[in-house]
Design goal:
The structure is a homodimer.
Chain A (H helix, E strand, L loop, with lengths): L1 E9 L2 E8 L2 E8 L6 E7 L9 H14 L2 E5 L11 H15 L5 H26 L5 E9 L2 H11 L4 E7 L7 H4 L6 E6 L7 H10 L5 E6 L9 H14 L2
Parallel strand pairs in A: 4-5, 4-6, 6-7, 7-8, 8-9
Antiparallel strand pairs in A: 1-2, 2-3, 3-5
Helix pairs in contact in A: 1-7, 3-4
């Protein structure tokens, strides 16, 4: 059951805060909602939240470029949601590894897999609730990089309502098995000089998807250097798959 | 010196045959030429010619999506141009290798390198001539896969007027050295299951480009299975680099 708690409107975009159970989210929609439109679920990265600039920026592109509804929720332990003692321990361990110059991968892979177990049922309930919104209709996409790939891959692997997904920037360790069950079209972004994720690891996750249509986009640069034009590419990917 | 020899017009596109020296080409342009527009030089693949469906299709996308002028010429020994005895020998050798189930790579790499030596000066003369056309102005792009990458990489490496290029589907053997001199933005397409070009070879050519902005697009499928949406991606790449 979805409740809208606030709304604002600017530049042709309606922005509505909502809550499903105890999960808060934001739904961005075209100001003109005379025609029902498809939905893109979007996940934020680790340590950020539903209104992080990458989220608001990508939502604006998706609304303007595809007329989509775009929903982002705070992941467990992120944004407006409380951290458990487990969250606190893992975040402290990540900061400790980072400060010590140790690889972050083992902590991120393990903690993100834990968060995915909590987040997948939440995404399912959120999608159930969003589908009751009258102006939302049609196929559903999922768009999530970094931690949102760690949550999105197991979610999409078990959620037949999602028909196209953009993933990227994660390790295969905890995800390859779920990825092998995914057959929908995928666009996968990786950074060619990622200081955290070895090139072979990024390629291994891309290879794991069982989709016959999947595209790898690799760009030079470090983990956080993903070029902005990949956001435009994601919009066109969703237009191709959710609008035709 | 460029001479137009024929012209037709349909669907908002003006199509003009031209000749520069003994090199015949086609120039596709927006029907509305009240504003000068940038030029994209496009090369065809081995065994095809300037009006091959991939050329006319991509030209239509570039004119409609970017308002570009698009020029394609017949490569040496292709289309309306005569084959030398050397061409005949190499084509026969390629067909022999193919029929025998031998790898095509060694023949293609060697023959394309030979063709590039003949074609690069022709491209330079063609560009000189096209720049005299009053409605052509601004930066210039190069778009060529397969054999057109074998010709385009040495051309672009020595041609400062080209400021953005889409390449793909070739071996690094004869091209990596020239690619290391290229610093303009590059979009590079490869087929993940290419039966002729091993994956490591495709990645090695991508890696060779010295460009700080370069994007690898890898798709599943065999050598000729490049998805159509990569043509749309190329249009957007050129819009980003030649129109902003």
């Amino acid at each position: 059951m979805l409740q809208f708690t606030a709304q604002t409107s600017a530049n042709g975009v309606l922005e509505r805060d909502f809550i499903v159970g105890d999960v808060p989210g934001v739904l961005w929609s075209p100001a003109d909602r005379s025609e029902p439109a498809p939905l893109v679920l979007m996940g934020h990265g680790g340590g950020t939240h539903k209104r992080w600039p990458a989220m608001t920026g990508r939502a604006a592109l998706l609304v303007a470029g595809g007329g989509f509804h775009v929903a982002v929720v705070d992941a467990p332990g992120h944004g407006d949601r409380p951290r458990t003692a487990h969250d606190e321990r893992e975040v402290a361990e990540l900061f400790r590894a980072r400060a010590a110059g140790e690889p972050e991968g083992p902590v991120v892979v393990r903690y993100n897999a834990h968060l995915a177990e909590r987040a997948v049922p939440e995404w399912r309930a959120t999608l159930d609730a969003l589908e009751e919104v009258p102006e939302i209709a049609g196929p559903v996409g999922f768009y999530g990089l970094n931690m949102a790939t760690a949550i999105g891959v197991p979610f999409v692997a078990t959620e037949p309502r999602i028909t196209a997904a953009v993933f990227g920037l994660h390790w295969p360790d905890a995800l390859a098995e779920a990825a092998r069950k995914i057959t929908i079209p995928i666009e996968y972004a990786m950074q060619w000089d990622d200081e955290h994720i070895p090139r072979e690891s990024g390629l291994a996750l891309f290879d794991a998807f069982a989709s016959t249509e999947k595209t790898l986009h690799a760009n030079p640069g470090r983990h956080k250097d993903l070029p902005r034009f990949e956001s435009d590419s994601a919009v066109r990917f969703f237009v191709r798959h959710l609008r035709s």
